[in-house]
Each structure stands twice: as C-alpha cells, then as structure tokens.
Amino acid sequence: MDSTSTINDEIAIDIPPILRVYKSGRVENLIGEEFLPPSLDQATNVESKDVVISEEHNISARLFIPKTNHPPIQKLPVFVYFHGGGFCIETPFSPCYHNYLNSVTSLANVIGVSVHYRRAPEYPVPIAHEDSWLALKWVASHVGGNGSDEWLNQYADFEKVFLGGDSAGANISHYLGIRVGKENLDGVKLEGSVYIHPYFWGVDLIGSESNMAEFVEKIHNLWRFSCPTTTGSDDPLINPANDPDLGKLGCKRLLVCVAGKDILRDRGLYYKELLEKSGWGGVVEVVEIEDEGHIFHLFKPSCENAMALLNQVVSFIKKA
Hints:
nine-stranded mixed sheet, three-stranded antiparallel sheet, Rossmann fold
C-alpha cells in the first residue's frame, strides 16, 4: 500500500455511530444513507413525490398527500417537517422518515412537506437553517395558487401551517418559528410547531445531564463539528436561553415531546420554562414518554409508545 492510500484511509474525526472524516477529506456517513423512492403507500393510502426547491443550492423536498378522498373535498393543513441527524446525516428519503410522514399525513389528513436541506460537515450550520428557511418560503410561494407545485396550489390551507421536526430538525423548527415571528410570511398562518426530542444544549449542565458524563462531551463536540464558527454550546442557535428573540416565536401553540431516557430530556422541559418567561403569548404542551431514549419512535415505530407519540402529534395538529 502506498503512502497516499494510507493517508486516505487514516481517520481524522470519528463520531460514532454517525460519521467518520478521513484525513483525505472524505466523509463517510455510517447511517442514514438508504434511499426509499416516492410511492403510493398501500398501508396508509398516501401518495408521495419529490420536488426541487432550489437547484442552485440542492434543496428539495418529498411531498405527501392522502389519497382517501382525492381530490380532497376541502383544503388540507400543511405539515412542514425537518429530519434529525445532528445536522450531519439522514434525509427525507430514509425509510424511517418516509414511513413516519406517511403515517402523520394519513392520520392527521395533511399535506406533508419533508425538507432535504444541506448537511454538515460539507455544508456547516447554519446552512441547514438557511436552506430550511428557503424551503419554507417556497411553501409560502403557493399562497396565491401560482407556485410550482400543483398539490400545494390546489389543496393547501395556508391558514393552518405547522412546523415539525425531531432532534436537529426540532432545532430548525424552533429557529424558523422565531424567524416567522420576526419577518412574517405573507398569507401564511403558522398555527403550531411540534418539537420531538429537540436538540438544544448549553455550557452549564442542567437536571440529570451531569449523570451522563460520557454523552456530554460528545454533544459539545458534535455541535462544534457541525458548526465550526460557533462560539460554543451557549450559541443562541443551540441554546435558546441566550436568544433575545425567543418571545417572538411566530406560532400560538407548541407541542414539545421528550423521552425519559434521553440526555436531551431536560433541555426540552427547560425550553417550556424559557418560553413562558419570555413574554410569548402562546400555549406550550409537553408530553413525556418514560423508559424510552432519543428518537425511539423512528427505530421501533410500531411499538406501543411510538404509537402513543404519533397519536399525540396527530391530535395536536387536528386541534386546528
């Protein structure tokens, strides 16, 4: 083996079970790369398709629509979803996210928009947040019925738009909710947001975090890896306690879902406290499922607790 091959195979950064970066610059994603094509799902009777939002920035989305009453007899709420993965891995085309959106779309009777944003380390944070804002503006471009996608033109109820996401995707949903509150999207009413196991952090440990020392440094390091320009774990992008605009969150209802065995649990609970102190005038609902870990519902979607979590999300959307 020559010296070049040896250098190419040497690991520079190892973040199990997410990815490895080699000294050659090559990035190897260890999970989240499986691609499931769009389809008409027989189990849920939901049809999906892929759309390009920005060719220049390689932003796209997978759209989902229930076919039970097609065409719909009324306009449908819109659920704009952002996948997790530490800003580094996963896509809307992974089986777990594709199947999750099929389920929510069917049970909540919504149009699902699952956003494919660019990921770190090739595209470091906050590129994921900016891409997601462009995607949300693309959704809003259909308000007058003259957008590039006919499902959104014909069937979307822009008076009932929801944001959702898990882990890093919940972080993005939080960011977008504040940005909507500050900048507005003409013709769009952000009814509510759903954060599942939100990826928030901070320098000072809270709650039970100090009992999970082996994970604490990993989270600090993952954040610095995905956002090299950050000031650290108290950056407002990762620590909402330091965001002076928190009270400007642009929805009136919020569902925060936490898991009892998740190291991020206490951050989700703390977020509720922060919002209530911020002057925000909405209502926060917190749901905790004990004896489960981070994003358990994606790993074992048919278990009883995953179904309970799914039903909480669907009920929240259906209150609109």
